[in-house]
Specification:
The structure holds two protein chains of two kinds. Chain A is mainly alpha-helical. Helix content of chain A is 81%, strand content 0%. Chain A has nine helices and no strands. Chain A is globular. The two termini of chain B are 105 Å apart. The radius of gyration of chain B is 61 Å and the shape is rod-shaped. Classes of the chains: A mainly alpha, B mainly alpha.
Chain lengths: 161, 295
């Protein structure tokens, strides 16, 4: 891809990648860092990346950066702050949309990523499998489990927590 | 196509939510849901898990763009002030050994000093040449004759004057002249014979070979060799001729010839060649300067 194609990719996909990351991490600064890293990697490998696959490449890179970041965050007990956030959200009895996003936070990284890639980006099972390095069946199964978990949270959040 | 029933309907519902069913499967599922109101409620609850698309803008998108600046700069006329200094002229091809007149002069002076004071030998006042000509080594040719003043049986008195300072060549010349004069003065064979013999003794030995009575030894002529020529007796008419002993201190001819060379360090330089070299070099430079002046 050319420099022009790269800049066009920024224009077209930067928001999508950022949304995907920030919905996963719920941390804007970290999300920005990951997005920047993903696009930097695309710039470095622009000669070997086809323009048509730029979006998929960006999400793949961003997803793996996200996984790395989440694993690193786990080591510094970031999970506790997530739990506090969800509890606070539950106590305030926010709107359904907000609750849904809180429910999203209860999913593990893989499930959450699969949901985000499916609902926000509209990727197929195969495409999600390519991004997350999972098989199509794994994507389908994990995604269905995530849906049921979200539904259960929406029906009765207390049971889930 | 797989039939939808109460055991597998949930998988179809989830695939429907994920939009993974084709058109026929979708129609079949919707028909199945229409037949089962409980499943319709479940479908609705699952649809609520689907995230609504949000528009979230990446805050610092500008930093992600690369080289958005204008690529071509507008030409601006800026004159470099010291442009004249940047001009270069290709150097002319220099000769193999390019020496200036002052360099040649300095080299000549240096060589003269070295040759004069013997810098390399470290001996002050002693020349570098091993064959130096010293004033004291003036050629000495001494012909001492026991009875060289006169010959008894000669009609004319022949006196061979031997000057101590004469060179050997001069001696030869004198003796030849004597011989010639003797022959011309009346053909006195004895005297002439003697004279020729003496002359030939000094000059060449081959001619003296003809004289039977001559037994003189010619000592190999080397630098500073003293040759003693002894003429015991000359048979023939010169019977009373006394034995003469001539002591000749020969000229150091090699020294004389080698005086032209100068030793500079380990190199022997011929003065004449060296002088010629300087002349050629000077001529070369003069021609060059003349050419430049003409241009």
């Amino acid at each position: 891809m050319t420099e022009k194609d790269y800049n066009e990719s920024v224009l077209l996909y930067a928001d999508n990648v950022y949304r995907f990351i920030v919905k996963n991490l719920r941390h804007t600064e970290d999300a920005e860092d990951i997005v920047q890293s993903a696009f930097e990697k695309l710039w470095i490998h622009k000669d070997s990346v086809e323009t048509a696959k730029a979006k998929s490449y960006l999400f793949t890179v961003a997803y793996h950066l996200l996984i790395d970041h989440t694993r690193k965050a786990k080591r510094i007990s970031l999970q506790e702050s997530f739990e506090n956030d969800t509890q606070t959200a539950y106590q305030e009895n926010k709107a359904l949309k907000k609750v849904l996003h809180d429910a999203l936070a209860t999913l593990n990284e893989t499930q959450r990523s699969l949901v985000l890639l499916k609902d926000y980006e509209g990727y197929s099972y195969e495409e999600i499998g390519e991004i997350t390095k999972l098989t199509t069946d794994q994507v389908r199964v994990y995604l269905h489990r995530a849906r049921l978990k979200l539904r259960n949270y929406l029906i009765s959040p207390q049971q889930v927590l | 196509m797989q039939n939808i029933d109460l055991h597998n309907y949930q998988d179809f519902l989830l695939r429907y939510i994920d939009e993974e069913l084709d058109l026929r499967q979708t129609e079949a599922l919707l028909a199945f849901v229409a037949l089962h109101p409980a499943i319709a409620e479940e479908l609705e609850s699952l649809q609520s898990t689907k995230l609504a698309i949000e528009v979230i803008t990446c805050p610092n998108k500008a930093v992600l763009y690369k080289n958005i600046f204008p690529v071509t700069l507008e030409p601006t006329t800026i004159v470099y002030p010291n442009k004249q200094k940047l001009f270069k002229k290709e150097k002319e091809k220099a000769p193999v050994v390019f020496l200036r007149w002052w360099a040649v002069g300095a080299a000549a002076i240096f060589i003269f000093i070295v040759a004069r004071y013997g810098m390399f030998n470290g001996e002050a006042g002693v020349g570098l040449s091993k064959n130096n000509i010293s004033k004291s080594s003036v050629v000495k040719a001494t012909i001492s004759t026991a009875n060289n003043a006169s010959h008894k049986n000669t009609t004319t008195n022949i006196v061979i004057e031997n000057n101590e300072s004469l060179a050997s060549t001069n001696i030869v010349a004198n003796q030849q002249n004597i011989a010639t004069n003797t022959l011309e003065s009346g053909g006195f064979g004895d005297v002439a014979y003697h004279a020729i013999q003496n002359a030939s003794t000094v000059t060449t030995t081959e001619t003296t070979h003809g004289t039977a009575s001559y037994t003189g030894d010619v000592i190999d002529v080397k630098p500073t060799i003293i040759a003693e020529i002894t003429v015991p007796s000359i048979t023939g008419s010169l019977t009373d001729h006394d034995e003469t002993t001539e002591t000749i201190e020969t000229i150091d001819t090699e020294t004389a010839s080698s005086n032209r060379s100068v030793m500079v360090g380990a190199f022997e330089i011929d003065k004449d060649k060296f002088r010629g070299l300087f002349r050629k070099a000077n001529a070369l430079f003069k021609n060059k300067e003349n050419n430049k002046n003409e241009k």
